[in-house]
Amino acid sequence: MTQSVRKGFTLNEVLISLVILSVIGAAFTRILTYQTRYLAHETSLRTARSVARTANNILLSDLRAVQDSGGVDSVWSTGKTIRILVPYRFGLVCATNGPVTTVSMLPVDSATIALSVYKGFAWRDSLTGRYHYIMPSDPTGADIPTTGVGPTCTGNGTNQAQILSVSSLARSANVLEVKSPAASGATVAAPVFFFQKVTYSFRTSGVYPNALGLWRNVEGGANEELVAPFDTSARFRFYQVGDDTSRVSPPAVGDIRGLELVLAALTPVKASNQASKPMQKVVTSVFFKNVRAY
To answer: Is residue 36 part of a domain?
Structure first.
């Protein structure tokens, strides 16, 4: 008589296996949870950095064109708002006759003209290298640039400037007249540019509650919220002549030679495991440039 062999696991073996699997499963779950949280945190920081870098690029596009003398129009004591005079079209002075200055302006894209709001012009003094800013009393009406007499710039006769008219990509230069008696000192062939007044400010976002947004306003145009969200510590700091480090309190606008952009950006969406929105602070210094010798 043969005895049958019973195959299988004992209860103790099954229990031990379950315990081992539970330990491995718990460890794997913990690792997976940590990795998921780490990925969410890194994604949040990367998104916040993207917000700061976008704001940085937008600000630098205008700030790098600002002159170091007269280019800052006003600043708020809070450090949250600045207004700058941004060039958008360049040319040369042809002649000045009383309150009228005739200028030859380089070709420019039509979109630039359409998106800009004329607020005055500036001409460069060859003796000091500084620009004189002329703000007409009525920059949106009677004092806006009008078409001038071409030979005043291109002709070679008496009181004619002999400045060649330039064309590029099917766009032609324009001879224009700008009005202001204050420009009587502008000499022939002096560089000139038209400018607009642009205000940048960190103020309450219209998109993200309890956060700031970077707003841009071209005087005479609409307010635009460019990028958000930012922490309440986002602001502008200021460099004065001779400063090695930026200062919180703004000096007189005529003494400002640069800005420090404190872009304390937040991630737009907070992860479920985060108590608050992660912040990434990008700090950039930009100094206004102006070559004062030919």
So the answer is: no
Domain hosting 189: range is 85-196
Does 201 share its domain with 55? yes
Note whether 97 and 233 are same-domain residues: no
What is the rounded distance in angstroms from the CA atom of residue 165 to the CA atom of residue 172? 8
- In this structure, are residues 211 and 234 in contact, taking their beta carbons and an 8 Å threshold? no
Pick the range with the lowest mean pLDDT from 64-78, 96-110, 170-184: 170-184
Return all residues near 230 (Cβ < 8 A) that are at least 6 apart: 51, 55, 202, 205, 211, 212, 213, 214, 263, 264, 265, 266
Q: How many domains does the chain have?
A: 2
Of 196, 222, 238, at which residue does a domain stop? Answer: 196
Burial 211-220 (b: 16+ CB within 10 A, else e): bbbbbbbbee
* 204-231: pLDDT as tens digits: 999 998 899 999 999 988 899 999 999 9
Say whether both 171 and 264 belong to one domain. Answer: no
Cα 56 to Cα 285: distance, rounded to the nearest angstrom? 10
Model pTM score = 0.82
Write out the two tokens for 49.
């950095």
Q: What distance in Å separates the CA atoms of residue 240 and residue 249, rounded to the nearest whole number?
A: 11
Q: What are 2-13's pLDDT values in tens digits? A: 566 666 667 777
